[in-house]
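fold-stage: in
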Amino acid sequence: MKAYRKIHDFKQPRVLPFWITNKSYYRWMSVIIAISTILAFIVVLISTYLDIPFSQVKTSDFKLNEVAPTDFIVSRNITYVDVKATKAARDAIDRTVPPIFELNNEVKGDSLGMFNTFISILTGYASKDAAPEAVMKEIQIKLPRAAHFFDKNEITALLSIVKRNKEVIESTGIILEEVMDTGIFHRLEEMVARNPELFSEEKIDFWRNDNQHEEIPLDKALSLGNLQDWIENRTKKLPLNEVNKSLVILLVLSFAEENAFYNRVKTEENKKRAREQVKPVMLELAKNYTIVRKGDIVTEEALEKIQAHGVSDISLNISNILATVFIIIIVLSLAITLFSRGIIQIRLRKNRILMLAGIFILSLILITLLSKIPFNSTWLSFSVWFPLCSIALVVSLLIGPNVGLIFSLIISVTLLLMTKMNVNAFVFSFLTALAGCVVSLKIRKRIDIIIAGLVLSLYSSFVLITIGFIYNFDINELFWALLWGVFNGFLYGGILSTGLLTLLEHILNAATRFRLLELSDLNAPTFKRMLNFAPGTYNHSILMANLAEIACTEIGANALLARVGAYYHDIGKLDQPGYFIENQTSDNVHDDLKPSLSVAVIKSHVKLGVEKAKELKLPQEVIDIIAQHHGKGLISYFYHRAMDENNNIKISPDDYRYPGERPKSKEAAVVMLSDIVEAASRTLKRPTVSKLEKLIWKIIMDKFTTDELSDCNLTLNELEIIKNSFVRILTGHFHTRIEYPKVKENLR
């Protein structure tokens, strides 16, 4: 436990991002992504232009009211604007916009000012008992606009009222102000007669100020034509006799003026905004539709369609281009993020990236072609034809289920975007792909793929039936749901996956479970030779494979890959087995060699092992384990021996290190640790559990503190698990037996 607590005193060595430490890998990935982007852009853009982009028939050959020189057939589905229908729709909305009238408060002030001046004149002359002629003369001088409204008798009556009945004057002022606040519309009857279309809705948009406006019915609008009627209705409530009421009406009519004026600019702006909100009326021309036949007269409607087809042929749809760009940006951003090493926990190799890019481009092409298949059903999508479950299953088996799941998600999102948000296609494809990734975890033999296909067929049928119930499909369609589910699940997930996996496994030389099982056969010629010429290495590899397999199983790594890597890790020793201690039966040949020469021989087995692995065409993952199983470790025995022979003169330790690279995967790191632990455990005399624990933990911590484990993502908890598994296996290997008594010779 003390050793375990000391672990926390160490900091995990800082690991630089893989794009810094692996620049060539980053360049490769950038090139592949760039090429994939260009190809994907072309495929998605062409998906709406599958046919000939330019019509072989010239639109200029067709003239209005002339004979068509040839048939004009639509080469692909196009959408165009119906100019006439659009204009009609906009004209209709134009007529619904009421005219705008604005209240002018200055006119109200002028009107009330004139009235008050008029009353002042009357009051002044009434106090002097002046003659009506003098009053009229004064009014003509000061109020020329109001003078013609009054004659001598009316002035006489008003002079009398000013003296005796001021209620008439007060009522007149109140009604006059009320009239001006209500608003008198300028030449309203004349405008209605001249522009009836402006008042087709029979209402007016009346603005009293910049923030207050209301729509009033046309028949309720006040004008000079109906002003007298409005005033008469208003005076009926006054407690005056008929003579006085008539004087009130006269005064209000005399001083009331039009103060609501038509605003042409604002009205036109409103109409323009309303027209702009009307979307163009779109018409569609289906592929192979004949607009006009040879010998027919070209009508105006036919000519409009021909011209629309011609414009569509020679122009690019900017919305399609932008949509394509956005689709590519979304998908690539998703791919770059999800395929980062921090998420998928593995480093994708060049051939794997090329494979994924190729499958992605082929998927785009297939989606484009399948989307043209007409499906009349509301619940059945063309995605039943798309083998995404097979793609997910194959990618999961070739690379890993995490990559298969992420890749399926990327293709599903692409399918969703390219099919204009066809949710049914996305749901079915992604769910069946998810099932493909899940069943890949249970596949151990090739026959299991066929069984997985049967499981996927049932699952696909269930998904289709569920979608059908959501859309209330007819129960008679249940048979078709089952049929399509079997087709997609068994034929794609089972049969197609078997063929694709075999092909891609051979092309990529992938370390699939099936390939690794073949390589784990100890009856292979390589192991036969190892058993005969390097039996110590053979036995060391067998025990080491057991250690690595159990440890990888317990930390969730690829146990079969670790076992195969352990089997082959020392094949570089086959050419010179006698130079390695486990194969020596007599004297040690290194006793007669200089340490520098001995180290050269020892180090060479890694390089020779990689060369032999390539000759055997082993998967790259196995080759990496061979190349990394010693890392950059120091060959300490010969280093210290060289120091002793040179009287402790300083010697560069780099000359006595393995030339390989540090383990890049958990499997390679476990193989490295199991190699050292298996060899070191043989040096223990009477090994016990405590001795093994101490030795193994010291070896692990030495590798940890010298940064040998800095690139493999092993955690401290996983190192503890690995240690415990090593102790358990080696304790069983070095178990003690009871000492049997010697058997006496038979006595006759």
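fold-stage: in (second)
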Amino acid sequence: MRENLGLYLAKRAQLCPTREGLVEVERGRRFDYRELNARANRIAHALRERGVSPGDRVAVLMMNGAEYVEAYYGLAKIGGVMVPLNWRLVPDELSFILNDSGSRLLLFDHEFDEAAAALHNGGTSISGWIRIGAGTGGPDFAEDYDAITSEASAEEPEIGAEGDDLLFIMYTSGTTGLPKGAVHTHATMAASSMTMVMTGDMRLGDRYLQMLPLFHVGALAPLTVSVHRGATVVLMRAFDPQAVFPLIEREQITTGLAVPAMLRFMLAAGNHDQHDRSSLRWIMSGAAPVPVPLIEQYAEMGIEIHQVYGLTETGGPACLISPEEAIAKAGSTGPAFFHTDVRVVDEAGADVQPGEIGEVIVSGRHIMKEYWNRPDATAETIREGWLYTGDLATIDKDGFVYIQDRKKDMIISGGENVYPAEVENAISAHPDVADVAVIGMPSAKWGESAAAIVVAKPDRQVSGDDILQFCQTKLARFKQPRSVEFVDEIPRNPTGKILKRILREQFPGPAPE
């Protein structure tokens, strides 16, 4: 079989035609694999009829839903390249991604009519607009998803990509303040799925609870694995902690993934003892270290927490630890996945000794092909087949990795990556700001939150509320600082680099909620 991710869905539909492939929780829709594959074929034909050729980029601005899954596999079949958009971004941020990727079509949910109108009026590379949901009343420049797919063929389309051909471009904020597009291919995501299947406990017939937004690799990679392995995906439109445990009971959920903040919110909902959890074997958790007490709380409930470490650039996987090892080796994210190599190296690229701090590097067929249109950043990140993560860690004699710090000062807030340089760039545009540095502060609710350390221009009156309000139009909510502190001078080294260690000591937090 050709290495095309769309064919994975077609093959699963052939092997398990009547098995439930997708359950859409809020709308109550259920599709077996045969129906799901037919729907993917319909959008594939509809997009091809609208001029989408192999290699063309098609952006997606959607909440979780069946149409997202259909578009992912439909585009894969015809060789289109999906550009998932974070719906938390503001139109200016979305516009940059659309133009940088050269996306020619945008599929968007009706919830984002206003954002789509702003993008349409603001000038982007988009020439075609397709709207999902809510019937009539949408903008007149957009076609209706249901209308165009109902007229399209459900037969298998001509396959337009395989192997090293592009599958999707997922944007992640960079230390320069501008997002970079991590390019994944059919081959890299096939390898990602394979290493996850061979390492984790995913079984034929599992029922996987999808709680994360599909614009995250932490959601798109497990979706790929679920189809590959023959699981049922139970898809929440958006995470609702109050609904999780009732859903586990009703849908007999066996597995899922949640970032640590979500695990805390699920406990805080206070209804876990009111519902049968016996079907649930484990929840994978990543994006930030999982505190051992949280793992122990879930263990007392009979739920295993499998801590994972990975990146957008690795297609998801890097390291995985079992719940027993997570307690025995507290603070570790585990050893490398089965088809993955992980090392911790010094500045010269040599392996560090156990206990010494170095940079985590990852190798495997699942690492990204490149950063889109960024050969400089690609060359800096991928060297001799190894992806340099920018994360600092130690490694013990058993190969267990312990993340110590983020070399590039990335903040993880509620599972979302926040890069200080991007926030600093936004705040620097304020007319009353002379200098700014952004650090992460501990947050009981989000794990970490951004804090802005600001130097005001001489003779200017600016308040913390002024800065916070200014950020509302410049940054997605999860990137906005939760607090602002004013200082006379930002500490820097002789080369001008901000000494954030000193700032973290000066402003230890915790962040306001």
